[in-house]
Every structure is written in C-alpha cells, then in structure tokens.
C-alpha cells in the first residue's frame, strides 16, 4: 500500500511538472485588474496608465537614443519586453501593457507603412478603390511573432502580480489611416467614402474585422490577460454614423473573441466618447474606457453599475501639486463606486509628465480601500500556487 501511495504521489507530481511545461500560466489566479474588469469584488481599484511606457521616462529616452527607429523598438522582442517592463519596475502598476502600436499588424495583412519623424505614420498606397482592395490578404500571424514572443515573456516576468495587457485598433480607426494614407485632422476622404463608396468601405472594414479578431485571439493565446480595443478616432463620427460604421464591426470582434476566449475581458476606449457611452455598452465589451471630458458620476448614471469602467483622471492633473492629484483620484474612485472600476488616466501619459507624479498616482491607488481589509489582500490572492 505504501509503495502504491508513493507511486501515485510521484505520478501526480510528474503530472504537475508536465502541466507546467505545457502552460506556464495556469497556476496563477486572476490578477486584481482582471477581477475588476469582470465586475468581481475587489479590495481596491487596480491602476495602470495608457502610454505608461514612453517618452516621459528618462530610461526610455536613453534607450530611444540608442535605437532611434520606433519600428525597431516596437517590433524587436527584446526591446519590446524591456520597454514594457520599464514602468513595471519603476511603479508596479496593476497592468503591464505591451509596447506596440495599433498599426503594427498592417503589413501582416497587406498594408505596408512607414513612420516618419515629423509626419508620423505614412501609408504610401492608401486603399481608395476596388483595385486597391486586391492588396489585402488574410493576416499572417507569423509576421507578428515578436508580439507573441513578447507577451509570453511579459507573462512570465510579471507572474500573477499584475495583468498583462494586449491591444488592437478598432476597424474604423485602422481604416482611417489606410484610407487617408496616414494621420489626418479632417477625415474628409474616409467620411466622404461613407456616402460615395459605401460598399468599398464595408469590404475594407469587414476584412479588418476578421484580421483584428484573429490578432486578439493570438495575443490572448500568447499570454495577454486582457485586451483593450482603441477606437481612437471613432469620436470623429457623429453618433448615428458611429452606430453604422464602427459599432457593428466592434460588436462582431467581441462576439468572435468571446466565443474563442470567453474569460478574457475586453476594454473599449474612444477619444471624445461622451456622446457614445450607451452605444459603446451595446457592443458587449466588459469595460468602457472613459476619457477625461466625461464626468465619472455622470458616466455611472448613464451606464449603470452592471458594466465596468476605466478612467478617467485628466492627464494634465499630473502636472499639478501632488495634493491635487490625490484629491482627483479620490473623487474619481468615489464616483465610480466599488464595483468594476479600473483607475486610469482619461488619455495617455503626456510627454513631460514628472515621473514622481506618476509614482504618486500609483502610490495613492494602493492606499485606497473599499472594505477595510488588508491592502495586501489582492497580492496574496495572486501568488503562485504550487
């Protein structure tokens, strides 16, 4: 009997080792941010910042001097990991987002682009005709191997102590670059296409929807706990046109990803989203990202308490006295309520933001408490289980 018991324990231990080798992620419980995204009870609001890795950090600027090409920095595994971990090592946020760009997957489905120092992203062959559509092909995820490799490493480096975040651009937002040929302030070409070539635009958006859906699933399978969908320029559309030209494609992405990755929270963020909140909720995402122009109390009244929200401290507050930063964080968190709030800025960290202000933001977030329990409660739950 003793021999049999010993043999059974040996086999069980061997099975655990085999499981570890098959999936290095399965022994972590959900990080605080994932729980909040799902609306589960948490002891405090998790916090991270959009663009939390970037030019406001001295360590990033030093690295950028050595590697001046943004494409190199965002498409080289070692550099992606190093840059993504810079704010983690400095501030210990509750979310670590991969250093990348919403345009990164374009060459993988037939749209090459460059990034110029002054002009920003440039697409030499914009898609504006039926013939132009012939350049598109299904997404080749092998060409995005550096994204998958980076997410796997980040998941291992961060462990269960923070959520690893992936992200994509929404079809409408990606289409603005592809149609306009780069960044624009007027969006006249693509807005005109809504009326002059609607079938062409629908075909492009449908192609992007399929590619983006596959790209999200790839990120999740590579280690992302959570995915943020940036419809950055969705706010450039009137609400009725957003309902027609953006919402259906985001809704389809949510449906496809939910079917394949049912436990992965999805966040939707739009610049200037005050007129779109209820419509955003209708896409089926788990979290609505709020920019700083929307008052948190008003957003909660409009959205209700059955969906999580993210945001929405004005990034300019980080240039104010630290006492003002503290008060604004406390106000936003109080208005958001204890159910389903992820503390974030209402946009990305601004260039020139003092690093001590960013550190203060995260320090304050960790002192907040919903139920008076230990501040270390969430960290204890996220420890590695053996």
Automatic annotation (TrEMBL):
Name the pathway.
Porphyrin-containing compound metabolism; protoporphyrin-IX biosynthesis; coproporphyrinogen-III from 5-aminolevulinate: step 4/4; Porphyrin-containing compound metabolism; chlorophyll biosynthesis
Superkingdom of source:
Eukaryota
Q: Sorted alphabetically, which PROSITE patterns does this protein's record hold?
A: UROD_1, UROD_2
Catalytic activity entry: uroporphyrinogen III + 4 H(+) = coproporphyrinogen III + 4 CO2
InterPro entries, per this entry? UROD/MetE-like_sf, Uroporphyrinogen_deCO2ase_HemE, Uroporphyrinogen_deCOase
The UniProt similarity line reads: Belongs to the uroporphyrinogen decarboxylase family.
Q: What protein name does the entry list?
A: Uroporphyrinogen decarboxylase
According to its UniProt entry, this protein's organism is Gossypium harknessii
